Amino acid sequence: MIELSLMKVNNALHPDPAYEDEFDRIKGGQWYDCKLTQPRNYLFHKKFFAMIKACHEFQNRIDDFDLFRKVLISESGHVHSFQYQDGRLLLIPKSISFAECDETEFQKIYLNVWQTAMNKFCYEGSEEEIKRRENILMSY
Predict the structure, then answer these.
(1) 3-state class (DSSP) for residue 97
(2) Same domain membership, residue 79 and residue 16
(3) Residue 101 sits in the same domain as residue 125
(4) What contacts 98, CB < 8 A, 6 or more positions away?
(5) How many domains does the chain have?
(6) What is the biggest distance separating any 2 CA atoms in the chain, rounded to whole angstroms?
């Protein structure tokens, strides 16, 4: 199995120069199965965590940042769910690690978490505080 990075240019896939040797090993005129994923954007990942940190500072119910992050991700709908026989529902946040979701999925998670944050944490307090929080979250 060969893993390499490719860029589409003019309807053709071109290898990253770092992967040219691997690309050259692929025989022409043959069919290959492949799975294409867009690599995660590290700066976007950092922006996501900065937004969650700002939301954590807005609230005063959960001191533990990691727990708050998991609650926010769960409330945004990025969860595994399990229903017990008695009807209770257990929600466990899904991983947002680079290995578990690609850039496209992460962008959806980001948007859902941002919308959840706006609805849950932005509209509490004085009018001035609400405007301040809106401005902060709108910057993300």
Answers:
(1) coil
(2) no
(3) yes
(4) 40, 45
(5) 2
(6) 67
The model's pTM: 0.68
SS3 content of the chain, % helix, strand, coil (to 5): 50, 15, 40
Distance of alpha carbon 92 from alpha carbon 79, whole angstroms: 5
Residue numbers of the domain that contains 16 = 1-36
**Beta bridge partners of residue 81, listed in sequence order:** 91
Q: Model confidence over 2-35: pLDDT tens digits?
A: 888 888 899 988 888 888 888 888 888 999 888 8
Q: Is 29 found in the same domain as 66?
A: no
Q: Does 92 lie in the same domain as 49? A: yes
- 3-state DSSP assignment of residue 22: helix
What are the contacts of 130-137 at 24+ separation with CB within 8 A?
133/58, 136/54, 137/51, 137/54, 137/55
Q: 12-15 and 6-9 as β-strands: parallel, antiparallel, unpaired?
A: antiparallel
Cα-Cα-Cα-Cα dihedral sign, residues 70, 72, 73, 74: positive
Residue in the structure block whose two tokens are 């940042």: 65
Distance separating alpha carbons of residues 112 and 76, to the nearest angstrom: 5
